[in-house]
Each structure stands twice: as structure tokens, then as C-alpha cells.
Amino acid sequence: MDDFIAPVEPAQGLQTGLQNSPVLVIIAQHALARTCILNILKRELEGFEIVEMATTSGLNWLSGRDIRLIALTIGNQPIADPSIEHSLALLAKSCPNAAVALLSNRDDEATASAAMQRGVRGFFPISIPVDVAIAGLRLVLAGGVYRPLPIVRQNGASSLKTVSEFPDTPELSGIHDSRDDTHLVLGKAMIDLTPREQHVLEALKLGLPNKLIAVRLNLSENTVKMHVQRIMRKCSARNRTEAVLRWSRRLNGHAPARVSSS
């Protein structure tokens, strides 16, 4: 992918009136992809100047700017490809304070793990829904780490794991059956939330609102609201964030777990 390091024209989207705004950068080879991503992010993420460019060399035009996030598209290329390694190294050197998110055509565990091992904060297969991708980007911007929900197929394909926005929170894992109905693989300390409540908790960790959780889990918003209330009650929490934090501490052995059959 030499095009990621070839000289290019100045980055598009710079405006004099936005020089003091934090910057999100989209790096994608194809103009159509860049434009589509740019338009979505402008609509969904307010308060940022969003800049698109074809290659990493365009970052020279943003010297001195407050770059918060760089979204790099890598297509079908493996993370270990020399051009991708070069691009990631360049981003780390030139924008050390920016979070890096990768947009990939691949959705396998090996690619996701390789990305995270290289310091990438967000891994976004193009197979995920737009609303989920936006929630993941917000999570990365808030200082978290995003990976897709677990996927284990019957043919033995490897899975993707979810990483919480809370660094000390253990991962949850799950499987999809032939009906695409997710069932959670319970850990030893997770037995006092029902499987459905754990699905909802997993979505809460991603910062998703009830509406998106309902779509993701194929539930009504009222049902999601009921599950959230039960989770908060079981965790003795006053709000959603506190419920996630309390459950994380319980997982880490700071509170006993009780079996729940409801």
C-alpha cells in the first residue's frame, strides 16, 4: 500500500475559523470512501474539525494542530504488511497524542489482536453497522478502547472480543448461533446477571443508548429499560456508568457474586 506514504496534495477541509478546534483525521485511499466517512462524522460528531486526506504524508499540513483521532483505512491488508506497519509507526511518531482507529475489510480475531498489539485504540471492520461504529468512535475519543462484540461461527472461525472503555474491566465473551441470537459464555464471576442482562451490560460498556441497545439485541426499548433498571438494582448503582464500574469491581473479586435464575 505505497499510496499511504506517497506525497499528496494538502489535506482538504481546513478552514481558517476552525484553527483552534480539535481535529479528527480520515485517511483513505479512495475519494468516495473519504467523502462518505467525512459526511457521516460531520453529522454525528460536533465540535471537531474533520479533515480527510489520501495518505499519511498529508499530516504535514496539520503540524501543531490538536489532532484527537486518526481513522486509517487499510482495506484487505494485514496489519503486518510493511506499508501498514510504516503508516502506524509514522502516526505514532508524528501524532503521539492522537488515538488511532483502523477501518478494515477483515473481521477476524488475528487482525484485531495484531492491531491492538500495535497500540491501535479502535478496530472497526466495515461489516459493523454505522450506529455501532459511531458509538465506538465516541468511546475511543473518550479515552477508551473499542473492538467489536464477540463472533464465533459454527464453521470454527475465530472470534472478535469486546474491550471495555474501563481498562481494568475483564472482557466478556459470547457466541452467535445459526439464528444469529447471541448467547453469553459466562465467566465464573458473572453468574448473578442473566445472560440477557449481561448482553445489555456489554452494550452499556460501549456507551450505547437504549435505542441502539434495542436494535442491537432485537428488543423493545421498554424491555431494554427494564433490563437496565434490574442491572442497576443488582449492582446497587444510581446510574448506568456506576453499574458498569460496580460490576467490574465485583468481577475483580471486590464483592461476592450471587446466583440468579431470573
Topology:
Layout lengths: L22 E5 L3 H14 L4 E5 L13 E9 L6 H13 L4 E6 L4 H9 L4 E4 L4 H12 L31 E4 L5 E4 L9 H11 L4 H8 L3 H14 L5 H12 L11
Parallel strand pairs: 1-2, 1-3, 3-4, 4-5
Antiparallel strand pairs: 6-7
Task: Report on this structure.
The chain contains 8 helices and 7 strands; from the N terminus they run βαββαβαβαββαααα. It starts with 22 loop residues before the first strand and ends in an 11-residue tail after the last helix. 36% of the residues are buried. The longest helix has 14 residues, at 31-44. It is elongated and about 50 Å long. Mean pLDDT is 74; it is low at 1-17, 150-191 and 254-262. The strands form 2 sheets. Strands 2-1-3-4-5 form a 5-stranded parallel β-sheet, sandwiched between helices. Strands 6-7 form a two-stranded antiparallel ribbon. α5 packs across α7 (221-234) and α6 packs across α7. It is an alpha/beta fold. The protein has a domain at 2-148: Rossmann fold (3-Layer(aba) Sandwich). β1, α1 (31-44) and β2 (49-53) form a beta-alpha-beta unit. Helix content is 35%, strand content 14%. It has helices spanning 31-44, 82-94, 109-117, 130-141, 195-205, 210-217, 221-234, 240-251; strands at 23-27, 49-53, 67-75, 99-104, 122-125, 173-176, 182-185. GO terms for molecular function: DNA binding. It comes from Bradyrhizobium lablabi.
